[in-house]
Specification:
Helix content: 10-25%
Protein name: Regulatory protein YycH domain-containing protein
Number of strands: 25
InterPro entries: YycH (IPR009996), YycH/YycI_2 (IPR042274)
Radius of gyration: 28 Å
Number of domains: 3
Pfam families: YycH (PF07435)
Distance between the termini: 94 Å
Oligomer: single chain
Largest sheet: 9 strands, antiparallel
């Protein structure tokens, strides 16, 4: 019996020794262990939800032509915008015929014929547009990018017409077959009859005849930490070193990639010059790659829309090493909700916020820029305000237009900081022909 007890005691001592050895190896500071590695290779932080590219592809505005020189506008998230867009997504368009813009009398078409005009800003590749609309393009049309779609009725014509505008500016594609009746188009147009009337100025932009209702907001904000961004962007966050520049900016690098942080602007710029090109790229492929990159490296802190997918200019292209093709992909953040509409948040020198920019070389992300600020939308304090319209706004635009012609007018938000809150102030965003952007409030 004594021998059995001694054997049990000895076994316990051996087990205790093994446990203590394991603890010393895997818990003491400085040990090169699996536990320490876990701290170095933290799972990518979920700073925001992932998005499907389809959710980032929508018009920045919807122009309703009522006929008799009457018009109105619907913006994202507003009641009739959502209704009309969802209906159009289920309609088919095919048999595209290429035509010159000179074949149409646009002023007459705009003023006399009921129709719906969808504006896509800088444009969207047809192969992406296929993801949100039922299109059957031929090879020629499939290679285009589209910045406008115009669906309309003609007097004494039994079928609806649909035009798709190339971003090149001189070509439109008409769908010979459109799964829409004249009655469908008229029903959509009728949604705008009791909405705020707008007057067009040479077809370039539209001015509301009365004030426009919009939401102003003050939202609690916080910051993503530098540690979070390092874990999201570097394979081994523990291997980065810190450099402080003379201008006050901070740089974190693993000798291949770099993360530059501007604490005053709450802005980060990530660069990976060693990114290996994947070969042939197209605007559509690059947009998909950019969306995937953001999904995997932080996610989306708010609602965004694809704003640009443009190639580097020829002069810049010639200056790049070996003439590698570059493309800038930009996503514009929007704020607002049903039924008042959603509008872009302007990026400004004093506070960089509201955009995510990515540069791609041959289909691979080489740089990535975004704000480090995020907000808690559930705690937003909102109030309804009005942007001036009518003669007051028209007179202001006339004065502005004396220096350079006004090319676009749209509601937008100017961001500001008040303590730990982000303020979003509604303004009129005025774009001039020389590219200058002004605000009126």
């Amino acid at each position: 019996m004594k021998e059995r007890v001694k054997s049990w005691i000895l076994a316990l001592l051996v087990l205790s020794s093994l446990i203590e050895s394991y603890y010393l190896i895997y818990r003491l500071p400085g040990s090169d262990t699996a536990v320490l590695s876990k701290n170095l290779y933290v799972k990518t932080d979920n700073m925001g939800p992932e998005e499907k590219v389809e959710d980032l592809l929508y018009p920045d505005k919807m122009i309703i032509h009522l006929g008799d020189s009457k018009h109105t506008l619907f913006y994202p998230s507003s009641t009739f915008y959502n209704l009309i867009l969802n209906r159009l997504k289920g309609r088919g368009f095919e048999s595209f015929q290429r035509r010159s813009v000179q074949d149409f009398d646009w002023s007459k078409l705009r003023s006399e014929n009921p129709g719906i005009e969808l504006s896509y800003g800088a444009g969207i590749p047809v192969t992406l547009l296929q993801r949100v609309m039922q299109l059957t393009p031929d090879s020629l049309f499939a290679g285009e990018s589209i910045d406008r779609i115009w669906i309309y009725n003609l007097k004494n014509d039994s079928k609806a017409h649909a035009l798709f505008f190339s971003t090149r500016g001189d070509i439109v594609y008409e769908a010979a077959k459109a799964d829409l009746t004249v009655q469908d188009v008229q029903q959509h147009v009728d949604f705008g009859k009791n909405w705020t009337p707008y007057t067009t100025i040479n077809g370039d932009y539209y001015v509301p005849d009365s004030n426009v209702t919009i939401v102003e907001a003050e939202i609690p904000s916080d910051m993503y930490t530098i540690e979070q961004m390092q874990r999201n962007l570097f394979r081994d966050a523990g291997s980065t070193r810190y450099i402080r520049e003379k201008d006050g900016s901070e740089i974190y690098t693993d000798s291949k990639r770099s993360l530059q942080v501007d604490q005053e602007q709450n802005w980060m710029s990530y660069s990976d010059p060693t990114a290996l090109p994947v070969g042939e790229s197209t605007p559509a492929k690059d947009v998909l790659e950019a969306v995937d990159f953001v999904n995997k490296h932080g996610g989306w802190s708010g609602s965004y829309r694809l704003a640009a997918a443009k190639e580097t200019s020829l002069d810049q292209l010639a200056a790049t090493e070996e003439g590698i093709e570059e493309r800038l992909i930009s996503f514009q953040q929007y704020y607002g909700s049903y039924p008042y509409g959603s509008y872009p948040i302007m990026n400004k020198p004093q506070l960089q916020y509201g955009v995510i920019n990515l540069d791609l070389q041959q289909g691979t992300v080489s740089s990535y820029e975004r704000s480090l600020m995020y907000v808690d939308e559930s705690k937003a304090i909102k109030k309804i305000v009005e942007l001036s319209g009518g003669e007051v706004l028209k007179n202001q635009l006339v004065q502005i237009g004396k220096a350079s012609a006004v090319k676009d007018l749209a509601p937008a938000y100017v961001p500001g900081i008040k303590g730990d809150k982000l303020q979003l102030h509604p303004v009129w965003k005025v774009t001039l022909s020389d590219g200058t952007i002004l605000t009126l409030n």
